[in-house]
Amino acid sequence: MSGLSNKSILSVILLLLGTQLSAQSILLSNQIKYSKNISSHVMFFEDITGEMPFEEVRKNTFKGNKGNRNFILPFSNHAFWFKMDFVREANAPESWTIWFTNELTENIELYQYSVSEGKYILNDKWDILSFRTKFFKGQEPFFDFKLTDSTTIYLKIKSERALSGIFSVGPTSAKTSVMMNLFGQRAFVNGLLVFRILLVLTLGLFVVKDIPFRAYSFLILIKTFGYWGLINALVPAFVNNPEVAQKLNYLFYSSTPIGTVLFSLAVLPFFGLPSWIKKVLFTFLALTVGINILVQLDYSWQFLQVGMGISVFSGLFIALVFAYSAIKRLPIQKYYAIPFLLGLLSYLLMNVRVLLQVQIPLVSNIAFLLFAAEIFIFIFFLGRIFRDSQLKNILVTQELKNKEFQSERLKELDELKTSFFTNISHELKTPLTLISGPIEELKKAYPNEKLLKMIRPNISRLQQLINQILDIQKLEAGKQNPHIIKRDLAKHLSRHVLSFESLTSSKSIALNFKQNKQSFEALFDEDKLNKILDNLLSNAIKYNSKGGRVEVDVFYKDQPKSFEFSVSDRGHGIAEKDLPYIFDRFYQVSNANYQGSGVGLALVKELVNLLKGKIEVKSELEKGTTFKVVLPADEVTWSNYVNDLNERSSGVLNSWKEVIYSEPQTEPDESDKELILLVEDNADMQEYIKSILEQDYRVIQAFNGLEGVEKASKEVPDLILCDLMMPLMDGFEFSKKIRANVASSHVPIIMLTAKSSKESRLESFEIGIDRYLTKPFDADELKGAIKSGLKSRKNLKALFTQGVLDTGNVKNEVSEIEHQFYKSLKAFIEENYQKPSLTVQEIAKAISMSETQLRRKLKTVSTYTPNEYLRKFRLQKAENLLKVQGKSVSEAAFEVGLENLSYFSKIFQQEYGCLPSEY
Ligand code: ADP
Asked: Measured over all CA atoms, what is the biggest interatomic distance in the chain, rounded to whole angstroms?
């Protein structure tokens, strides 16, 4: 800063001139009608102390202004004294006015000789702070003075801020028109600026919505405020606080570089420019903000000078970068860049002059021309900007449409694929079950056959894949619901994960399982959780290498209950580019080494969503993959799924009572079909048999003997199919239990077994097993066995039906327990049939059965419902009364508990074909 010290610059200018001009008198004639620039006639003296008293100043030599039409004052706290000798022509006016044309002059004083006091006195003063008192005089400092012949006037200017200004003088009578003229100019420029702001803001907000336009609009906004700051426009708004106005003025005009830098950042073609340019721009931004803050804290000439330095240097730098880009033929947005550069040049010219204290001829005029050119050229370019923006809009909409179209096509294709796979899967499922059931049996019959061992895993793979595709389709169609149970989750997970141990050890992979609790009672969907785990684990094993490692970490949380588990491997990992797609259906990372379908993770994702959880994946090539799943397990989340009526149909026996939550699953009413209970521990066999029977019968399943006994008693099926070899309770024991229970004692049982020894056959017949089917059997064999099993009960029915009143002749045809059932039923009715109020409920209770059990049992053994049976019983009794004992109709009806005579007559007629009175 010292190198460019303001004082020394001034001295240099004066030295260059070589001579010291003597004071020239300024002639005030009546030729001066308006106002006249007198700057070249004004002498000046710089008081570097800034404090020198007037009398001392007068003793100093004043220097001439070397013919310049203006004065440029530096940033400093010096005082600048100006001396003007006025001589009045005879017929010229006596009242004159002096102007100094700079609105931001901070402090200016006028000293004039007072005849009354006989010395020079401070006659008038103006400072920006006392502006309020001079508000109506206009915004530039001016002083009125009178003279008769001649006078010398001294003006003292003190301003921290550097200034450029002109001294001019004119008759006081012309003051109003001078001010009006100035006001007019200002109004014109302001009008232009306001118009420009409104124009760009409206267009930027509603029409041309691209970034360069908005950046330019923002720049215009900032520049307009900058202009208002420079003309001190804020003072009228802050008449009571001019100090604030002064600082705000500064804030306004010194923020222009912010707009300039931001605009450059938005528009410059940085891809083709050295990267440090951006950094320099950001530095300018930071410096501008910093210096603004400093000036707000301390309004001193040093900070003001630095502020202007930054703004000039940033402007120059930006202009050079634009020029460089243009030379390099980089795409600069010329419709914005050209007006921007014109404005920037205008700004630089005005500021370089005061910053470097140099006179530039006609600078104000050139700057004003550039300023006007910016506005008009931009308006001229607007047409092209519009055209370009419209073109761009059209292209963007077209591209958007294309993209939409494409994504729709992709979606359609995906749906098509899914529906294709679903259909195929349905087709494949049945034959596959029909293959897998018999294979299972063949394996039992020929345990050493190696070929069979090879078939099994591949059938499983196929089955799993088909089930997964069907699951996905069901999930997507919203046909799958959470089936929530309350259990010890920690036990379940450890058991389930560790069941993979044999698979991992066969591939020489270490399996680690860790959890933060050993017991954790929680609500979860066992089946879906297993599916999620199975998929993640089998991927972790599949995409691992020999000697690798798979880790499962579980973290249980209370309040609200939830759990988080991760499955990690140190295998091949997934490339970053593939990661976003691995959960997509049928997506596979291209790798010839692995077989896959791309269905597993898609299913996992759907399942996790259904269970209201989240899944994340992290992976690095050659380092490994970690899948993390978080699932809720609390009552609040699953409260809507409470339904105690549903029972879990799982093969795993569970000893403790469990609360069962599930969405109600409505089954179609198939009550016309006969009901078959299938008791079989092998899931494949279950599926196989079910697939054979589903068409013609209603099938309920039990996966072990205990479950079977329970279901048989509750549902009273028409027939039971039971496997002989089952864990916990074998087929014989099961059958004994069935036969011992009144509700189910009559149900025909077909035993399925691979055993075909004579003894076992004998044993089964002793227990009362109706039929014996040796595995492997085919569909027709099974169907035939079932048909004849059901038929045998039909014969029984005929016997029962005949003997509603008489049990004697059926006694030999049925087992003891049936006989007992029949006897006690009949005995109770015999005793109570005369009570008109007798209900089925009472009957069932009397023989220790539920109404359902009674209804189903009676229907199977007699074709009657309990009500029909009771009615039939009463009618037979009444018939006896009428025919044998010769009782009247009303007596007979009354005695058998049928009080309603017309009803009695009606049912009697239905049964016997004539009215009771005609009987
Ligand atoms: P599939 O395994 O049948 O191909 P998935 O849906 O299970 O289908 O997985 C999709 C893809 O994600 C796989 O093809 C595989 O490339 C990648 N992937 C999944 N899990 C892992 C893993 N643990 N490590 C490496 N890659 C994996």
From this structure: 167
Q: Is 538 in the pocket of ligand 1 (CB under 6 A)?
A: no
Q: Is the CB of 572 under 6 A from ligand 1?
A: yes
149 burial level (CB within 10 Å; 0-12, 13-18, 19+): exposed
Interhelix angle for 276-297 vs 301-327, to 10°?
Answer: 160
Query: Where do we find the tokens 């009362």?
Result: 768
Spatial separation of the C-alpha atoms in residues 336 and 404, rounded to whole Å: 33
**Orientation angle between helical segments 363-445 and 334-356, nearest 10 degrees:** 130
From the number of C-beta atoms within 10 Å of its C-beta (0-12, 13-18, 19+), residue 178 rates as buried
CB contact set of 215 (below 8 Å; sequence gap of 6+): 262, 263, 265, 266, 267, 336
Pocket lining: 624 vs ligand 1, CB cutoff 6 Å: no
Residue of 511, 534, 539 to mutate, ligand 1, most atoms within 8 A of C-beta: 539
Pairing of strands 749-753, 771-774: parallel
Segment 583-597, tens digit of pLDDT: 987 787 766 566 677
Provide the β-strand partners of residue 626. Answer: 568, 618
- Alpha-helical regions (H) of 127-204: 175-202
How are the residues of the chain apportioned to helix, strand and coil, as percentages rounded to the nearest 5?
Answer: 55, 15, 30
Highest mean pLDDT among 112-116, 289-293, 437-441: 289-293
Stated as kind and residue range, the H or E segment containing 321 is helix 301-327
What pTM was computed for the model?
A: 0.48
In this prediction, residue 793 carries a pLDDT of 74
Compute the distance between CA of residue 556 and CA of residue 517 in angstroms, rounded to an integer.
Answer: 7
CA–CA dist 741, 809 (Å, integer): 23
> Where is 774: in which H helix or E strand?
strand 771-774
- For residue 464 and ligand 1, the question of a CB distance below 6 A is answered with no
Rounded CA separation 768/738 (Å): 10
93 in contact with ligand 1, CB cutoff 6 A: no
pLDDT at 755: 58
CA 624 to ligand 1 center in whole angstroms: 12
E strands, 440-503, in order:
485-488
- Please tell me if the CB atom of residue 588 comes closer than 6 angstroms to any atom of ligand 1: yes
Q: Is the CB of 571 under 6 A from ligand 1?
A: yes
- Look at residue 19 in the predicted model and tell me its pLDDT: 38
Q: Are 721 and 690 in contact (CB under 8 A)?
A: no
* 683-711 confidence digits (pLDDT tens): 778 888 888 888 889 999 998 899 999 99
CA of 582 to the centre of ligand 1 (A): 7
Quick check: CB of 539 below 6 Å from ligand 1?
A: yes
| Omega within 30 of 0 (cis) for the link into 236 | no
Please determine, for residue 435, whether its predicted confidence score (pLDDT) is greater than 70: yes
- The owner of tokens 């068409």 is 695
Q: Which pairs count as long-range contacts for 800-807, CB under 8 Å and 24+ apart, including other chains?
A: 800/861, 800/862, 801/862, 801/863, 801/864, 804/862, 804/864, 804/869, 804/872, 804/873, 804/876, 805/873, 805/876
831: pLDDT strictly greater than 80: yes
Among 543, 584, 599, 623, the mutation site with the greatest number of ligand 1 atoms within 8 A of its Cβ is 543
Dist. CA 340–CA 315, nearest whole Å? 11
HSE on the CB side for 227, CA within 13 Å? 20
Average pLDDT, the chain: 83
Euclidean distance between CA atoms 804 and 858, whole angstroms: 11
Residue 632 Cα to ligand 1 middle (Å): 25
| Per-residue pLDDT, 754 | 67
Q: Residue 240 has which token pair?
A: 């009571």
Q: Is 605 in the pocket of ligand 1 (CB under 6 A)?
A: no
**29-45: per-residue pLDDT in tens?**
989 999 999 999 999 99
